[in-house]
Amino acid sequence: MSIKPILIHPDPRLKKVADPVSAITPELGRLAEDMLETMYDAPGIGLAAPQVGVLSRLLVMDCVKDPEAAPRPMVLFNPQVTWSSEERSVYEEGCLSIPEQYAEVERPAVVRVKWLALDGTEQEEEFSDLWATCVQHEIDHLNGKLFIDYLKPMRRQMITRKMQKLKREKARV
Ligand SMILES: [Zn+2]
Fold first, then answer.
1. Domain of 134?
2. CA-based torsion, 92, 95, 101, 107: positive or negative
3. Which residues are catalytic?
4. Most buried of 22, 60, 134, 167, CB within 10 angstroms?
5. What is the pLDDT of residues 108-118, one digit of tens each?
6. What is the DSSP letter of 52?
7. Annotated binding site for Fe cation, which residues?
8. CATH number at residue 166
9. Domain count, the chain
């Protein structure tokens, strides 16, 4: 396993629609393991393949908050929202590709999601609370969408400028 570098916004790869996975190859299995390791190391609660520069419909997440509780690493290939609640909820979101920037985003409070697991079996589950927000945020990544796209243009541009500055500073080191 290895930790992958995470792309920082703005990056054209974060704006692309990722391709469906037609077969879960051993390479994709290894990528999923690396993404989990990268996510836990960051630390974060979700990571989508485009964030490590791979334009495939794959995301990983673990939204268990209690440090005493057992972790629940999840790997989702080709995730699809099959139902979302009319009830909405607001969470303060952040993103590993937009470090240290947070903003409130409103999304459906509960979603049902269908996906292929690492072993190729089809799974379906209802997510609520933080899990619902996280899975929707990560699926957005597979469609080239970032949480700042939900914000007003002024706020979005401000964050983008901060990230450009951060990238320039990083490049100089
Ligand atoms: Zn993100």
1. 12-172
2. negative
3. 138
4. 60
5. 999 999 999 99
6. G
7. 95, 137, 141
8. 3.90.45.10
9. 1
